[in-house]
């Protein structure tokens, strides 16, 4: 049976219903509100059950905690109030087709005091007034956090538990660098970030069991398996599964009761009927199998709120919803119970619900990571586990809903197989990018599947991949990979090599790593590269050690029974995900600053060793003074016609980039994580290329101190004047070294006039990029776009109020341009922009940095 | 009628008392207030501790910060010229002119200005402190978060945002 039956796959005649338009207006009007319900409830439970100060918290204890919260949290049916600019409250009519919420607020900021919530403590009274992304918070909530919640977590959040573990002796008198080198490196900010302090999350649950069988069936399955368990640990694990799922069922039931009460008081018959429907649906799902498309969506939504109760709202992703829900959708359409308009309305309402929370980011973090949403990726299209075309009507319906809604969350990602999916489908994806300016990101199935199978996944597992967080591929419901466990600042490795184990940021008197020799004494580029590899191995070792330490803390204090219940593997293996219960147990790493390092290596090779234009000492001197007095050298280093640059299909630069990604993949791949899996490497940066760039001095590539690095795997802005060369350079990278995903961020100038031509050019460029050149590699792995004029971006800096919905692709996820800090806005404006008509770069002068983020 | 008058009197007394406390707090913290908004000297840390102690003494709501809270802090400059410790315990705040054993957190700063920027940072100042290596923090960061909250509360009581 054909999966695509739509006459017009663009669905251009479908528009948003009045209900959704109104809700969307409220959504963009509302500011985030801090919600203290979760920290209040978990603190109370931990106090009453003496969980503070324990050596370890079991999965069952954790499950009881989550059940307690689920059963006592406010069963929000519809919101009535939110806050707008100036923190002014306003009321509105919420008639979403979905009840329940991630927090008690319309657009909430959930707090996780077990992790990083305490970093918000100093600014609690000032959150409403902070310049960047303010949060509403009630004064009595500030008092309660300060007096009755946060104090209990001072010695009990993950960072402190880990720090204690890192010290084997008296923690107050030990020299930090000697006894906790990994933590010390982390705290210096400039070497790497270890995300486990904040979360694991970063995975895709398996919703199919919940949707098709209901949670009650999973509880029954757990009970059966408990009877054949061989020890208390296994029995406790199955009890923990039952506990949390009963909690979710109770929460849904509470919503149903609340909806029924509201219906009884409601006078408007239409509204009354809607509430009655909500009560009926929530009485049934997610306990029992979904019987309709709406019930299926509701199951996913309620489970999603529960997953966010347990796991911080960073990078959790929903997977292939067009596959999970297709049967229900098709059944309802065929029976006449659902129209395409209904489906778009439902999906739009769900998309708003999914975006009903933002991650908590303290003010200092706003400068490094500001503007990010929760990075909840949804994946559509591609092929199925049999290798057949999986694009269906629901794929196009979800795409259209995304196009109409223009939300940053969920973050839509589209899979495309060049040999199996249709060109019409690809064309439609390109058209959606032009219409939205930034979404969806596109992933080449052929390349991704090859990358995943090279790391040991079966073909079926790899074919069923979804996108996690930004761009990381992971098998749906099977891969617990913490795809963002380490974010490594690669230019720091360069620093340690250039300065013989020292880093300019931490001071030239302090030996950070090992001494690998003075650069001036290296006889050849090979010597330098070998020293680089030694420094890389050292830093990677430290980052991995810390990740594993933090992982063990998660095992001891943060088991995840809710996620484990909705995952393939834990029930079979009889253990929680944190103990390796998943079918696939990798850890993911992202490398920041690849292009800048490749260009620096190429510059050293060419200018110092081949042309012998400067000595290494002279080069170091130029870096020390930020090229002041060495302007002609800087120009030489930056000139792609004289110095090889990555992205220009230059053989020397290509050789260096391949050497680098292979070395990194091999070095990380040798390491084992705390769950028994291996590390995988990717190249995406979120906003860290701006943050780390700010902390890094001038580089041999000609980059000046404090400037942003290039994002993701993208060549340095301005280095590559031709689109085809940029695409080819990335497409030829061996995918087995890129298994944790890449973000190739390109900017196209929207062409005025012939729209059909523009879409054609766009589609051809992507098709060419995904194509396999001479059968060597499976083509480029991923690509994402910003399609907005330079003038629009510049105007948006000056008049953000005119562009509340201007969506951009940062380096992985989508964000609203107005929410980005000045440094990130500049980075996006300065990205090389290409004309699709001829593939040439359009040159603009660098955008001046405004605001307080100048260094 | 009598009880209304009594209640009114009670409310007015509370308001007047609160205003008086605020007045005396500002009066007693004049130098600190100057240094918070103007030039900073090496006395800054000492003045800050005095201001906090006075606020704890005069203001019940500020005193609530001491409930359920114990913390041991050591502040020093990188050249060792300034060293002071403060202990919060049993609802009290005690200041020492030297390093104390078993501190929960050590804050080493380049100079008084660096410390002020770190504690009272707006926008980019905290990052600038780290960038310039002006402040180094060793130990449990959660304690400095709590300290930062108390300091900001003090500023709000002075009427400084």
Explain the layout of strands and helices.
The complex is a heterodimer of chains A (855) and B (161).
Chain A: H1 18-29, E1 33-35, H2 37-48, H3 59-72, E2 81-84, E3 88-91, E4 108-110, H4 139-153, H5 158-166, H6 176-179, H7 181-187, E5 192-194, H8 208-213, H9 215-227, H10 232-265, H11 269-284, H12 293-310, H13 321-324, H14 326-335, H15 340-354, H16 363-369, E6 377-381, H17 393-405, E7 411-416, H18 423-436, E8 441-444, H19 445-453, H20 459-463, E9 465-468, E10 472-475, E11 486-489, H21 490-498, H22 525-557, H23 561-565, H24 570-573, E12 587-592, H25 594-610, H26 616-624, H27 631-638, H28 651-669, E13 679-682, H29 688-694, H30 723-731, E14 745-749, H31 755-770, E15 782-786, H32 790-798, E16 807-809, E17 814-816, H33 822-830, E18 833-835, E19 841-842
Parallel strand pairs in A: 1-4, 6-7, 7-8, 11-12, 12-13, 14-15, 14-18
Antiparallel strand pairs in A: 2-3, 5-11, 8-15, 9-10, 16-17, 18-19
Helix pairs in contact in A: 1-15, 2-3, 2-4, 3-10, 5-22, 7-22, 9-10, 10-11, 12-15, 15-17, 17-18, 18-31, 21-22, 22-28, 25-28, 30-31
Chain B: H1 2-28, H2 30-37, H3 44-58, H4 60-63, E1 71-77, E2 83-89, E3 92-96, E4 105-109, H5 112-119, H6 125-131, E5 135-139, H7 141-158
Parallel strand pairs in B: 1-4
Antiparallel strand pairs in B: 1-2, 2-3, 4-5
Helix pairs in contact in B: 1-3
